[in-house]
Amino acid sequence: AVVSTQSTGKPLSLEHLGACEETWRSAPFPDLNTKFTVLNACIEGIGRDIPSSQLTYLQTIDDVITYYSTPVEEKRYMELRPQSLPFNVKIAKNHFKGLPDTN
Fold first, then answer.
1. What is the pTM of this model?
2. Which residue among 21, 23, 31, 86 is the one 20 to 30 A from 6 at the CA level?
3. How many CB atoms are closer than 10 A to CB 17?
């Protein structure tokens, strides 16, 4: 993922952030439109979305590389222990959706 992020991020940084070869990783996003353009290109190029909760932490291409270098830990709901869930969340293994539609 790091190689893919660097190969995607470097040309974007050079083109959109006005960075040079030495500073392409540390160049800040000058405005929100540029940040959107660069991050959208990274999402499309790498194939992994960035949640809105992380957007504020991504200020440079180096931050984006760090984000994409962090492994994603996916848990299935059924594998979660009840004590790791909020008190108002219950997982029903055999749920009932209702009667089939007769129309």
1. 0.64
2. 31
3. 21
